[in-house]
What we know:
By secondary structure, the protein is an alpha+beta fold. It has helices at about 20-40, 55-65; strands spanning about 45-50, 70-75, 80-85. The protein has a domain at about 20-85. A hairpin with an 8-residue loop joins strand 2 and strand 3.
Amino acid sequence: MNEYELELSFGIDHGELDGLRLQDAFVLGYEFANFVEAMKFQPAGCSMVLHSGNWARVKAAAVKYNRRVTSSWCEQDASEDWMQLQIWPTDLPAQGPSDAM
């Protein structure tokens, strides 16, 4: 008996995870699930660190949940893999100024 249904696609139908180690793919999936939970259950908004590999997925989830998200690169991160994600409060318009990412 299937008790679970796909609520939101992880967006991996076109080889987006090809070449990643299993551990890295797991981290992206776990991280994405945390962002979706925050968008669903934290109306006051929050700020979190995001791997840049999840930015497109998070933006798509924000559209689904009518949330505004912005990001900026983490300072002093030579790898340029990490971003600071801001999930804005639900009482602010979802269509606000967005960054160029």
